[in-house]
Design goal:
Elements (H helix, E strand, L loop, with lengths): L2 H4 L3 E3 L17 E3 L4 E10 L6 E18 L4 H12 L5 E9 L4 E9 L16 H7 L1
Antiparallel strand pairs: 1-4, 2-4, 3-4, 5-6
């Protein structure tokens, strides 16, 4: 991993989003970028338990994300903790994606399952927004 990759934000779509369960992992160690952010080319499906989603490649998909910017001196520590939580590299891949906002764009890390085909049958999260899904479950 080169130096620039170490300083990318994380595009989080599920339990790592603010107030979605695992945000304590990064609280006081990162900041959330203001604005509404999304990633094209993925769709969210819900795990059978309804407790967490998977981002699956989809040519016409669109998911809502929050951008988490680790504090500069905690970049590596937070990456290690996120990788452990997501089971990287055995369960999830950590890939670079384009993230779009109302008036800006950036590149960020996104975790997506290694075996996306195994999750194709799961129910789709309407609108690609996990926070809205949780309200309606």
């Amino acid at each position: 991993m080169n130096f620039e990759d170490c300083h990318l934000p994380y595009a989080v779509y599920g339990s790592l989003r603010p107030d979605c369960g695992n945000d304590g992992l990064w609280r006081n160690r990162a900041n959330v970028r203001d604005g509404k952010w999304f990633v094209d080319g993925y769709r969210l499906v819900a795990h059978r338990s309804g407790m967490f989603p998977f981002a699956l490649p989809s040519p016409f998909g669109h998911i809502c994300v929050d951008l988490i910017d680790p504090l500069s001196h905690l970049q590596e520590d937070l990456r290690i903790d996120f990788d452990l939580l997501e089971g990287y590299p055995n369960f999830y891949n950590r890939i670079k994606v384009d993230v779009y906002g109302e008036n800006s764009q950036c590149v960020a890390w996104l975790y997506t399952p290694n075996d996306s085909e195994s999750y194709e049958h799961l129910p789709r999260v309407s609108g690609g927004n996990w926070k809205n899904y949780l309200i309606n479950v």
